[in-house]
Amino acid sequence: MRALLAFPFACIVSGVLSFPLEIYVNDFLEPSFLLDAKFANDTIFAQQSIIQWAGELANQGPWSVLTSKPDGFNAPSGDPHDYLSWAPYWWPDCSNVGNKTELTPQQIWTTCPYHQRDGQFNPDRLLVNNTGAFQALADAVYYNVLAWRLNGSSTYSSNAVKFIRTWFLDPETRMNPNLNYAQVIRGPGSRYGAHTGVLDLKCMAKIATGILALRQANSPDWTGEIDAQMTNWTADYINWLQTSPIALGEGWAANNHGSFYFVQLSSLYLIINDTNGAKNVTQWFFEHQYLGQISANGDQPLEAERTHPYHYRGYNLAAIMTNARIAYYSGLTDVWNRTASSGAGIQQALDYAIAQPAGEEPVLEIHPYVAGVGAIYGDPEGKYAAFIKSQNENYPEEPYFLWTQPLSDSGFALGHTTTVSNSSSSSSSSSSPLKSASRATARFENLPAVLYALACAIACALL
Ligand SMILES: *[C@@H]1O[C@H](CO)[C@@H](O)[C@H](O)[C@H]1NC(C)=O
Ligand SMILES: *[C@@H]1O[C@H](CO)[C@@H](O)[C@H](O)[C@H]1NC(C)=O
Ligand SMILES: *[C@@H]1O[C@H](CO)[C@@H](O)[C@H](O)[C@H]1NC(C)=O
Ligand SMILES: *[C@@H]1O[C@H](CO)[C@@H](O)[C@H](O)[C@H]1NC(C)=O
Ligand SMILES: *[C@@H]1O[C@H](CO)[C@@H](O)[C@H](O)[C@H]1NC(C)=O
Ligand SMILES: *[C@@H]1O[C@H](CO)[C@@H](O)[C@H](O)[C@H]1NC(C)=O
Ligand SMILES: *[C@@H]1O[C@H](CO)[C@@H](O)[C@H](O)[C@H]1NC(C)=O
Ligand SMILES: *[C@@H]1O[C@H](CO)[C@@H](O)[C@H](O)[C@H]1NC(C)=O
Ligand SMILES: *[C@@H]1O[C@H](CO)[C@@H](O)[C@H](O)[C@H]1NC(C)=O
């Protein structure tokens, strides 16, 4: 492997920051972006956050489908290696099966008939938490590989590889390569999951980001044996995604479910090193679902009709843009200029989405994609930067600010001129960036924390 980087910021030190961990809906980063590691000097605050998030997430791992289910409780197949999650809006009626309070949770799950209450989440749905575990795994891999490129320590790359092995490969803990039991409706009898449950693994794009960088940098942690095993697992899972009636139902969905199906499938093709396969799959998306998703005025009617339109417009944009990033990487270089049948494209959809009133819905979730549009299409008047700043004045501390360049930092770093340094600066400033970032973080904490909680809850749960 090449000598570990010219560290862009040798002055980064580890420390205790309190910048809160968030969940971005999805993203994909090209390996060359991570391998070149040439980052703008005012992204240093984002870099610090990335390293902090990587450490926080790593402390929670590893994860597997076995350890994120209650002891001894399995999918209807009885196989502990099968992924399991529950349909979120379904509630038990135990009136005809004895006294509810004398039943264990597991007995309730398997003996009481369940009924749908539209829009009402059953709070116990995450007691079987394979969904949360996969989400955390995907973020842990993504941020640990990023931190490895920023900091150079193989602690981070070995973290990422260990987490991948535990979830997918190690015989004791591996997940079977199917989602036959995602979003199962609970109750008596053996059941299969729903096609909507395929969404649970949409963040495979973050894992593909990590694997491609590890592979192309020839990380000693990512051995040929591990690569071959992961390719094997992924080929089996691709076969399931392209042949199972459950999965195909998701592939036909016209709305964000269909968009994320192609994000996931193209990510898997990248993991098996089949770039043409990834290109075909994303091209398919842009020549099918995408055509019907954006109206001439930029609205996304299939998302706008949902109960949380501000969230869903941003959510589907996250899927479209992740598809576009993968498509571009795979050789579909005109993808950012492609339009839906209406003539409107990604930028119009973003412009429309952020012009709508958010009401009670969280506003920060869409920011990585506003920043992405600003970086990709340009932001000469600074309108995207200004929009983000109006809702989060410390946005250059957000990890996404690293990979949505060029984008103005709205003068943020200038307020920290004594502390921001470039790659050739001496290490004499080594402790100051941390201090200034801490000051900024203190302001950041004044943002309503509830917005983050809401954004995360909705990003994780609304399906
Ligand atoms: C990388 O992180 C380690 C552990 O926190 C730290 O000791 C080291 O100084 C960092 N290296 C760089 C180049 O920032
Ligand atoms: C159900 O069980 C609880 C606790 O064992 C008891 O307090 C309650 O009276 C019982 N209810 C009925 C309807 O049997
Ligand atoms: C599910 O797992 C995630 C990731 O580990 C965790 O943050 C969350 O608190 C868990 N939820 C429950 C209900 O245990
Ligand atoms: C890949 O899977 C095949 C059969 O499914 C098996 O024979 C082979 O040993 C596996 N290869 C690796 C590297 O695990
Ligand atoms: C991936 O594919 C490229 C081009 O098709 C090839 O050069 C490279 O060796 C492959 N890498 C692996 C790990 O198979
Ligand atoms: C391209 O992708 C589509 C959608 O998944 C699939 O139906 C088709 O078979 C693929 N074509 C090739 C040549 O792989
Ligand atoms: C869109 O197409 C124009 C004309 O070919 C090109 O100059 C521009 O860079 C493209 N935009 C993006 C974002 O790819
Ligand atoms: C970043 O570097 C550029 C020159 O490359 C300089 O003009 C700018 O002032 C620097 N920003 C900070 C915050 O140091
Ligand atoms: C980086 O910092 C060094 C030393 O402070 C300075 O000489 C150099 O011009 C700077 N480079 C850039 C690109 O800002």
UniProtKB/TrEMBL annotation:
Domain of life assignment: Eukaryota
Q: Do the record's keywords include Lyase?
A: yes
Is Lyase a UniProt keyword of this protein? yes
Keywords, ordered alphabetically: Lyase
What name does UniProt use for this protein?
Chondroitin AC/alginate lyase
Native species = Vararia minispora EC-137
